[in-house]
C-alpha cells in the first residue's frame, strides 16, 4: 500500500517488479495499466458481511446460555467487526495490487494479496471473453470478466479473471479483445440477432432429464435434513400416517408423483433462471454471443473461427415433443468450473425442431441446415445387433431371476415372466428407435452423423475440421460386416462416432468426406475373398 | 460387402519388432504373477479360506497363462504400422481391432517412451498426438533405435508440413 503516491501519478513501477510499464506516462493510452472498480470492495464486504451475520446469530444464542445476552452480542459484534475490517483491508490491498493492461501484443494481469502473480496472454491466442454478474453485482453495474485462451493445458494458467470491473469496461474489453482487425466486415444492415427467447420454450423444461433428477434430489434432501435433526423416523411415520388408509403400491405411486411434480417445478424455475433474457447474436468481430440469465447474467462469446460445427441434441423427453437443443462444437470450450449445470457450449435451449434447424443453419452461415440433410441408413446388421443387445440386457437379469426362482421360491418365476413380458417389447422398441437414429452423410462442407435414442445427437462437423480417423471393429462387428468410424477433431468432445456403418459403405464414405486422408490406405476387396488369416 | 467397388483397409506396411512378442508375454506374465502369488500366499497363511483362495489363485494363473500363450502371437499378426509422407497409419488390437490414421499436418507432438520392461527388450513406444483429446496414436514394440529414428523423422516431416494442427 506504500506505493499509493507513485501510482497516482501514473508512472508507478509494479510492486517489486522489474517489468515496469514504461509507456504509461501520458494518461489515456490504451496500453495503460487499468484497475478494477473500487466498488469491488463493497460487493465483497456485503457478501462477507452477510455470511458473517448469518454465522453470528447462532453463536450469540449459544453464548447467551452462559452470560447475559447483551454481553454475548457485544463479543460477537466485536468479532464480526474485526473480521470485516480485516477483510476490507485484504480486499483493498488486493484491489490496489491488481492491475491489468491490454497491450497490442499481450493482455496482462498482475494480482495477488501477498505474492504478486503476473499473468499474460498473447492476444492472438485469446478465444473467449465471458462476463458474469450475480444479482448484487448487477445492481452495482459490475461484472466479472474471464479472458481465456481456451487451451486445455494447465487449467487456470490460461485464464485471466478480472474480479470485478464496470459493465461498460467489460463490454469494451470483450469487444476489443475479440474483434480481429482482419475480420470480414459485416453488412451493417444485417440483423445481428439470431435467436431470442420465446417464453413458450419453457414447456420443454419439465420433460428434460433434469426434472426427475431434481425430484429425486428434493426427496433425498428432505430425508437428509430430517436426519440431521434426528427426525427422520418421525418424517417417515408422518408420511405413513397420511397414507394409513391406502395400500403400499398406491402410496408409492403418489409419492413418486409428488417428487415428479416437485422436480418439474424445480426444472421450470431453473430454466427461468438460466434462460431468461436469452439472446444469441452474431457480432461484427466474427463472434457468436449468448447472453442469458435472470438473476445471474451471463455472456458467453464464441469466436466463429473456433467453431467446427454444431450438435443438435434431442433428449428422449424433449424429442417426444418435437424439440431439439443446439450445442456448439468449438475448440477450447471448457466447461464452467463454477456452476456445472450450465454448459457454456449451448447455443439454443430446447426449442421447436424447425427453430433449432434454422439457428443451426444461421450459426454456420449455411443456407440449409446441415443437420436436416437426408442421411444414409446403416445396414440391417446394425439393427440386428441393437435388438440383440436390448434383448440381452433384459434376458440376462430375467435368467438370473429364473435361476433364483428354481433354487429358492417359485414366486420369482412369476416375477421373471412378468418382467420379460413387459420389458422385452420396450427393449425392442428402443432398439428399433436406436437403429432408426443411425445415419451419416455429407452436407456441403459438413460431415453429418446421428445416433442415440435416449439422447439422440446429430453432429454436423466441418469436413476440414476432421484431423484423423479411427476405425474400430470388434470380433462380432467383423462377422456382421460393420465397423465404427470415429472422426477425431480438435473441437467439442474430441471425437465423433459413426456407429455400425457397413464395412465398405463406411470406408468409402469416410474417404469421400475427408479427401486424401483415408484413400491411400484402402484396397479393393478381392471378388473371391479368402478369409483373411488375421481375422 | 459383395458390391463392385467394395473396399477395405489394407494392413499397414511394417510389422512391429519380433522381440515385442516376448515383451508382451513377460508383461502378461508379470500382471498374472502378482495377483496369483498374493492369492497363493494368503491361501498358505489363512487356514479357513485356504481352499477358495488357492482355487482362485489357480484360476488366475490358468487364465493368465492361456492369455500369455494365445494373445501375444495374435497381437503380433495384427499390430502393424506405417508412416507415409502424408500420414501415420497404425493397426492394433485383437478381438477389438483398431485402425488409426493421423495426417502429418495435424500432428502436434511426437514422444518416445521406454518402460523398464521395454528397456530390457530394447524396445520403445512412439506416441503421436494431435489436437484432438482422443486422437493419440501409439506404436508399441518398436526397436528402440528405430523408434528414435522414427520420432526424429516424424518431427522433421511435421515441421515441414504446413498447417496449424487444428
TrEMBL record, chain A:
<feature type="region of interest" description="Disordered">
    <location>
        <begin position="1"/>
        <end position="31"/>
    </location>
</feature>
<dbReference type="Pfam" id="PF03703">
    <property type="entry name" value="bPH_2"/>
</dbReference>
<feature type="transmembrane region" description="Helical">
    <location>
        <begin position="69"/>
        <end position="90"/>
    </location>
</feature>
<dbReference type="InterPro" id="IPR014529">
    <property type="entry name" value="UCP026631"/>
</dbReference>
<feature type="domain" description="YdbS-like PH">
    <location>
        <begin position="96"/>
        <end position="176"/>
    </location>
</feature>
<keyword id="KW-1133">Transmembrane helix</keyword>
<keyword id="KW-0812">Transmembrane</keyword>
<feature type="transmembrane region" description="Helical">
    <location>
        <begin position="209"/>
        <end position="230"/>
    </location>
</feature>
<feature type="transmembrane region" description="Helical">
    <location>
        <begin position="389"/>
        <end position="407"/>
    </location>
</feature>
<feature type="compositionally biased region" description="Low complexity">
    <location>
        <begin position="7"/>
        <end position="26"/>
    </location>
</feature>
<protein>
    <submittedName>
        <fullName>PH domain-containing protein</fullName>
    </submittedName>
</protein>
<feature type="transmembrane region" description="Helical">
    <location>
        <begin position="413"/>
        <end position="432"/>
    </location>
</feature>
<keyword id="KW-0472">Membrane</keyword>
<feature type="transmembrane region" description="Helical">
    <location>
        <begin position="41"/>
        <end position="63"/>
    </location>
</feature>
<dbReference type="InterPro" id="IPR005182">
    <property type="entry name" value="YdbS-like_PH"/>
</dbReference>
<feature type="transmembrane region" description="Helical">
    <location>
        <begin position="250"/>
        <end position="272"/>
    </location>
</feature>
<feature type="domain" description="YdbS-like PH">
    <location>
        <begin position="435"/>
        <end position="495"/>
    </location>
</feature>
TrEMBL record, chain B:
<keyword id="KW-0812">Transmembrane</keyword>
<dbReference type="InterPro" id="IPR005182">
    <property type="entry name" value="YdbS-like_PH"/>
</dbReference>
<protein>
    <submittedName>
        <fullName>PH domain-containing protein</fullName>
    </submittedName>
</protein>
<keyword id="KW-1133">Transmembrane helix</keyword>
<feature type="transmembrane region" description="Helical">
    <location>
        <begin position="28"/>
        <end position="46"/>
    </location>
</feature>
<dbReference type="Pfam" id="PF03703">
    <property type="entry name" value="bPH_2"/>
</dbReference>
<feature type="domain" description="YdbS-like PH">
    <location>
        <begin position="77"/>
        <end position="153"/>
    </location>
</feature>
<keyword id="KW-0472">Membrane</keyword>
<feature type="transmembrane region" description="Helical">
    <location>
        <begin position="52"/>
        <end position="76"/>
    </location>
</feature>
Amino acid at each position: 500500500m506504500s506505493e499509493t503516491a507513485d501510482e497516482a501519478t501514473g508512472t508507478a513501477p509494479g510492486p517489486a517488479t522489474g517489468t515496469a510499464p514504461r509507456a504509461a506516462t501520458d494518461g489515456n493510452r490504451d496500453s495503460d495499466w487499468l484497475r478494477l472498480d473500487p466498488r469491488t470492495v463493497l460487493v465483497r464486504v456485503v457478501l462477507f458481511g452477510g455470511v458473517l451475520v448469518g454465522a453470528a446469530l447462532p453463536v450469540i444464542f449459544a453464548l447467551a446460555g452462559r452470560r447475559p445476552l447483551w454481553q454475548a452480542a457485544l463479543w460477537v459484534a466485536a468479532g464480526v467487526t474485526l473480521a470485516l475490517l480485516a477483510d476490507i483491508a485484504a480486499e483493498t490491498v488486493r484491489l490496489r495490487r491488481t492491475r491489468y493492461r491490454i497491450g497490442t501484443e499481450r493482455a496482462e494481469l498482475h494480482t495477488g494479496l501477498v505474492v504478486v502473480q503476473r499473468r499474460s496472454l498473447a492476444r492472438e491466442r485469446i478465444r473467449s471473453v465471458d462476463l458474469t454478474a450475480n444479482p448484487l453485482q448487477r445492481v452495482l453495474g459490475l461484472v466479472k470478466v474471464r479472458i481465456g485462451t481456451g487451451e486445455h493445458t494447465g487449467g487456470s494458467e490460461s485464464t485471466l479473471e478480472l474480479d470485478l470491473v464496470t459493465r461498460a469496461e467489460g463490454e469494451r474489453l470483450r469487444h476489443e479483445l475479440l474483434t480481429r482487425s482482419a475480420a470480414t466486415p459485416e453488412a451493417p444492415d444485417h440483423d445481428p440477432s439470431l435467436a431470442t427467447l420465446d417464453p413458450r420454450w419453457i414447456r420443454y423444461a419439465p420433460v428434460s432429464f433434469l426434472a426427475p433428477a431434481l425430484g429425486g434430489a428434493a426427496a433425498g434432501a428432505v430425508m437428509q435434513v430430517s436426519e440431521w435433526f434426528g427426525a427422520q423416523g418421525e418424517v417417515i411415520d408422518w408420511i405413513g400416517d397420511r397414507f394409513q388408509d391406502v395400500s403400499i403400491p398406491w402410496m408409492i405411486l403418489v409419492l413418486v408423483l409428488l417428487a415428479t411434480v416437485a422436480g418439474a417445478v424445480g426444472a421450470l424455475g431453473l430454466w427461468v433462471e438460466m434462460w431468461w433474457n436469452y439472446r444469441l447474436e452474431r457480432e461484427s468481430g466474427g463472434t457468436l454471443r449468448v447472453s442469458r440469465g435472470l438473476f445471474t447474467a451471463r455472456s458467453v462469446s464464441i469466436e466463429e473461427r473456433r467453431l467446427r460445427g454444431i450438435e443438435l441434441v434431442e433428449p428422449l423427453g424433449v424429442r417426444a415433443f418435437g424439440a431439439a437443443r443446439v450445442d456448439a462444437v468449438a475448440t477450447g470450450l471448457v466447461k464452467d468450473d463454477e456452476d456445472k449445470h450450465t454448459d457454456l457450449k449451448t447455443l439454443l435451449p430446447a426449442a421447436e425442431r424447425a427453430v433449432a434447424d434454422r439457428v443451426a443453419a444461421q450459426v454456420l452461415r449455411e443456407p440449409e441446415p446441415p443437420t436436416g440433410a437426408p442421411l444414409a441408413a446403416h445396414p440391417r446388421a446394425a439393427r440386428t445387433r441393437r435388438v440383440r443387445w436390448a434383448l440381452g440386457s433384459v434376458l440376462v437379469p430375467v435368467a438370473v431371476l429364473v435361476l433364483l426362482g428354481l433354487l429358492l421360491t417359485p414366486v420369482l418365476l412369476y416375477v421373471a415372466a412378468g418382467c420379460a413380458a413387459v420389458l422385452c417389447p420396450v427393449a425392442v422398441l428402443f432398439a428399433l428407435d436406436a437403429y432408426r437414429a443411425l445415419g451419416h452423410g455429407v452436407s456441403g462442407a459438413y460431415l453429418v452423423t446421428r445416433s442415440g435414442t435416449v439422447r439422440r445427437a446429430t453432429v454436423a462437423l466441418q469436413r476440414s475440421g476432421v484431423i484423423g480417423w479411427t476405425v474400430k471393429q470388434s470380433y462380432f462387428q467383423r462377422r456382421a460386416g460393420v465397423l465404427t468410424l470415429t472422426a477425431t477433431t480438435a473441437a467439442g468432445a474430441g471425437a465423433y462416432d459413426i456407429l455400425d456403418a457397413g464395412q465398405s459403405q463406411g470406408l468409402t464414405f469416410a474417404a469421400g468426406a475427408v479427401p486424401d486422408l483415408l484413400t491411400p490406405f484402402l484396397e479393393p476387396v478381392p471378388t473371391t475373398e479368402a478369409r483373411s488369416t488375421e481375422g | 460387402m459383395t458390391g463392385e467397388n467394395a473396399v477395405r483397409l489394407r494392413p499397414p506396411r511394417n510389422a512391429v519388432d519380433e522381440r515385442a512378442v516376448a515383451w508382451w508375454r513377460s508383461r502378461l506374465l508379470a500382471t498374472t504373477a502378482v495377483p496369483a502369488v498374493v492369492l497363493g500366499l494368503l491361501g498358505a497363511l489363512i487356514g479357513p479360506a485356504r481352499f477358495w483362495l488357492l482355487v482362485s489363485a489357480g484360476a488366475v494363473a490358468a487364465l493368465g497363462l492361456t492369455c500369455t500363450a494365445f494373445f501375444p502371437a495374435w497381437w503380433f499378426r495384427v499390430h502393424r504400422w506405417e508412416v507415409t509422407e502424408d500420414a501415420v497409419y497404425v493397426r492394433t488390437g485383437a478381438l477389438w481391432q483398431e485402425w488409426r490414421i493421423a495426417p502429418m499436418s495435424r500432428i502436434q507432438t511426437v514422444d518416445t517412451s521406454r518402460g523398464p520392461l521395454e528397456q530390457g527388450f530394447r524396445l520403445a513406444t512412439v506416441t503421436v498426438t494431435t489436437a484432438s483429446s482422443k486422437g493419440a496414436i501409439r506404436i508399441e514394440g518398436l526397436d528402440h533405435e528405430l523408434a528414435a529414428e522414427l520420432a526424429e523423422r516424424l518431427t522433421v516431416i511435421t515441421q515441414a508440413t504446413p498447417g496449424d494442427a487444428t
